[in-house]
Amino acid sequence: MNQKTVPQEVLNTFFPGTSLADVRSYGDGHINDTFLVEASGSSGSGKFILQRINSEIFQHPEELMENIQGVTGWLRKKITEEGGDPARETLNLRLTADGKPIFKDASGGYWRVYDFIENTSCFSQSESAEDFYQSALSFGHFQRLLADYPAHTLHETIPHFHDTPVRFATFEKAVAADSAGRADSVREEIAFVTARREYVHTLVDKQASGILPLRVTHNDTKLNNILIDNETGKGICVIDLDTVMPGLSVNDFGDSIRFGASTGAEDEPDLTKVSCSLELFEAYTKGFLEGCGGALTPAELDSLIDGAIMMTLECGIRFLTDHLEGDHYFKIHRENHNLDRARTQFKLVSDMEAKRSDMEAIVKKLAAELC
Ligand code: ADP
Ligand code: GN1
Ligand code: MG
């Protein structure tokens, strides 16, 4: 669903008595509809991020907002204690006139508003190893600040979100059903996934046997889910908190590598431009280990590379599944967009598999220095 207009009742609810200078689509997330609102008036002036939550994907938006209120409240307290600026370093929700963080419109759409964080940039590809390093510090730091968060209070906003064997089973069903009639045209990609049938269990098995601990994790650690301060160049705010849930730290690490260590865009059609940069991999690993502040266990350090390969494979499986099912999950902007995305992920998986020993050497060297 890609709704491009905002009902008046939504604006009246979040911005009563305010004249709105501008409301326009914003950002390039794949899931929610995001708008930038510029307002002036008695109940508050300034810029805001208004979002229509994708309630086909997040089926319990009120629970999701309970998570976000809890997590942002916790972060605000910790950031203040550490001498930071909570107005810029975490998301701040704007409530409705009756104190709610969410509003349901007459046609069933769910809406929320955050203060807009000014003078920041959000990158859809790494422009420099330094920016990527900064994002790693931020995601590692985020995990450290939430290390003692009461995990049992968090709702599971998307069940089995990073359960790769479940993603694999859903993919196999999509191939069998072939509801969009596309399976024959993607036999090579299907074979790529099927060849990794056993591998998809690697991390969930380690979690089930207690080798890898569950932590409070972000679960969607793309570079464009960090705001970088335009003046200092530092990663200041982790955004897109919809999937904060108990999970594996190696998946947070891995999802960042999947997206930000690639030399090409996530949807680059020319696969010769797509590979995993070892320079970017090293920059991120350094920042993540520093940001986590020595909290990772030896087993987690040992599984970082599997985190990178698994998140990339899983994301490729999800894009290919969506292509096979007729593109109902991720927003697409052109024909075969999900297929192009799946192909970049599989190219990266192959490249990381080939570079595993180089990546291992980098992790070993940095762990010895920093952990
Ligand atoms: P999605 O779940 O669709 O990815 P996000 O929550 O990541 O949505 O928001 C989409 C984009 O909006 C972000 O990539 C970022 O550019 C921008 N954005 C979101 N929240 C803020 C904020 N509080 N201040 C400034 N920009 C923001
Ligand atoms: C989605 O919301 P966004 O665009 O940050 C997706 C992630 C995928 C990512 C791929 C809730 O993230 O899981 O890794 O696209 N979010 C959800 O780019 O499914
Ligand atoms: Mg996002």
TrEMBL record:
Domain of life according to the entry: Bacteria
Alphabetical list of InterPro entries matching this protein: Aminoglycoside_PTrfase, Kinase-like_dom_sf, Pseudomonas-type_ThrB
Domain Aminoglycoside phosphotransferase residue range list: 23-262
Sample GO molecular function, one term: transferase activity
Protein's recorded name: Phosphotransferase enzyme family
Protein source organism: Marvinbryantia formatexigens DSM 14469
